């Protein structure tokens, strides 16, 4: 089986559903965070760090945070002796009328239990992150970006390279060939598409966690603010660097809108390397 990475429109089906009350997690009183932190600062790229490296670091960090939330829905419930998210309670990977599908061996979209979907996503993301041809830097050590930059080991431009005959009329960009995100740090041309795919799948996991498990267990064990904190950081980075589209955020849009209204998230046009938008330090 493989990943169904098509856009949401053709990988999800709208189930017939009666109008229902908005979930609790779309209410302002439950939109709080565990920190008063400034998420713009957390996400903003340090000046000297190349953007590809920074995004690789962010993706690994975002996955680490998501993994902690996923672990919470995998805890075995003593009453049922089953994990909280199991095929009985979550027979499909669903969130707010969206059902995400996986591709079978014939590339046909199939519905599988949420926990199976999440396990496959985790395996797929870990495979990507640990693949040196996709993530060529040591993204596991803290502060790798600055250290790698300082050592010059990831800046091929600082190393003398043999160049072919030059023509003074040829622009420098043409001599170096095509440009892409992370090229100067050694990331492959597919890097941007890869991290966007990773982001899309992580978004689906968050959507299922909220829509399937906000009450049990996050509300019941008083961990919903931790969940909000991980999710707002995820959305902030995704919006700042254009890693995620509006359509993908749709199942969680009302909560995102609440945070936007409070100035906790950047408006869509913000750029990653600049710190725009109001400082959100006063909100809780
Ligand atoms: Zn579930």
UniProtKB/TrEMBL annotation:
<feature type="binding site">
    <location>
        <position position="208"/>
    </location>
    <ligand>
        <name>Zn(2+)</name>
    </ligand>
</feature>
<feature type="binding site">
    <location>
        <position position="213"/>
    </location>
    <ligand>
        <name>Zn(2+)</name>
    </ligand>
</feature>
<dbReference type="InterPro" id="IPR005301">
    <property type="entry name" value="MOB_kinase_act_fam"/>
</dbReference>
<feature type="binding site">
    <location>
        <position position="85"/>
    </location>
    <ligand>
        <name>Zn(2+)</name>
    </ligand>
</feature>
<protein>
    <submittedName>
        <fullName>Mob1/phocein</fullName>
    </submittedName>
</protein>
<dbReference type="InterPro" id="IPR036703">
    <property type="entry name" value="MOB_kinase_act_sf"/>
</dbReference>
<feature type="binding site">
    <location>
        <position position="90"/>
    </location>
    <ligand>
        <name>Zn(2+)</name>
    </ligand>
</feature>
<dbReference type="Pfam" id="PF03637">
    <property type="entry name" value="Mob1_phocein"/>
</dbReference>
<keyword id="KW-0862">Zinc</keyword>
<keyword id="KW-0479">Metal-binding</keyword>
């Amino acid at each position: 089986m493989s990943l169904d990475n098509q856009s949401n429109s053709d990988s999800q089906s709208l189930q017939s559903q009666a109008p229902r009350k908005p979930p609790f997690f779309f209410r302002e009183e439950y939109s709080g965070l565990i920190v008063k932190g400034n998420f713009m600062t957390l996400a903003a790229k340090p000046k000297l760090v190349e953007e590809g490296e920074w995004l690789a670091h962010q993706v690994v960090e975002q996955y680490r945070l998501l993994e902690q939330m996923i672990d919470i829905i995998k805890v075995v419930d003593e009453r049922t002796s089953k994990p909280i998210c199991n095929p009985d309670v979550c027979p499909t990977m669903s969130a707010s009328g969206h059902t995400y599908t996986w591709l079978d061996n014939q590339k046909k979209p199939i519905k599988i239990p949420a926990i199976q979907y999440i396990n496959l996503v985790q395996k797929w993301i870990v495979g990507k992150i640990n693949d040196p041809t996709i993530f060529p830097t040591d993204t596991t050590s803290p502060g790798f970006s600055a250290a790698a930059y300082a050592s010059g080991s990831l800046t091929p431009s600082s190393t003398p390279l043999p160049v072919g005959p030059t023509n003074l009329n040829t622009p420098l960009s043409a001599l170096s060939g095509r440009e892409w995100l992370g090229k100067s740090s050694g990331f492959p041309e597919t890097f941007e598409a890869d991290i966007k795919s990773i982001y899309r799948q992580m978004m689906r996991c968050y959507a299922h966690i909220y829509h399937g498990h906000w009450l049990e267990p996050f509300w019941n064990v008083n961990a919903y603010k931790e969940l909000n904190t991980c999710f707002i950081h995820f959305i902030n980075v995704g919006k700042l660097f254009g890693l995620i589209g509006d359509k993908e955020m749709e199942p969680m849009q009302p909560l995102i809108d609440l945070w936007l209204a409070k100035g906790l998230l950047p408006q869509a046009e913000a750029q990653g390397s600049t710190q725009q938008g109001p400082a959100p330090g006063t909100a809780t």
